[in-house]
Amino acid sequence: MTLYSNDSTAPVSEFLLICFPNFQSWQHWLSLPLSLLFLLAMGANATLLITIRLEASLHQPMYYLLSLLSLLDIVLCLTVLPKVLAIFWFDLRHISFSACFLQMFIMNSFLTMESCTFMVMAYDRYVAICHPLRYTSIITDQFVVRAAIFIVARNGLPTMPIPILSSRLRYCAGNMIKNCICTNMSVSKLSCDDITFNQLYQFVIGWTLLGSDLVLIVLSYSFILKTVLRIKAERAMVKALSTCGSHFILILFFSTVLLVLVITNLARKRIPPDVPILLNILHHLIPPALNPIVYGVRTKEIKQGIQKLLRRL
After folding, report:
1. Domains delineated in the chain
2. Which residue range or ranges hold the G-protein coupled receptors family 1 profile domain (predicted)?
């Protein structure tokens, strides 16, 4: 495939990430909070993974699912933030075509994998609270293995055509992407081909995968709430509501940020173009920073495991 810059006769071999086109002057200031969030996300998820790996008492299905979520978060952060910070600090805006489409695939597939992992974890909590006597027979190590294979296949295969469709377009409107990352819409806008099918495919696949996850998550927590309200032991009810409530809020935040991002892109004529760009970056950063705190540190067993790990150091 041969791509061209603004001069249609001159072939080029890379894209140029413009990042925030209207606010170039304050990009260095924005890099500070983004760097801190990046370090928090990487440190918290790495600590959670090491703790679960070293603490034998945490070798249980629920914590394996937490490990999977942390791995997805780490990959998402490493896919997006280092390049964004390189643009802010060193003005390294160039990105090769293959790297751009690889980034596009990882972002699309791993975000939906994370959503699906939330759904599986909600099911885990549903079985634990609504069917506690059957929990150990349903949520087993084999269940986690099958769930991991399902998560990867169910989200990796349908999202794979998105970067493939984008890579097969003819690019004749320049190679400057008005974004910090290679999103499908930002890249395909540079094409002189009809991108209707490209946009429609991403829209249908995205809402099918994420929408079905959200519906199943809401159903799981609805059944959990119904069961919890029947519990006569006040302490048990408060503990269940506290744990599941924090999980549901985090999932709702993940879905809400995504919905806001979609709305701002649809209403881009009324909203400054830099807003959806910033939201896109934050959506790949804030959930990975919060997930290990809400799911991990608030869990008594993991908190004790982290304390043991710190004593070893």
Report:
1. 3-304 (1.20.1070.10)
2. 44-295
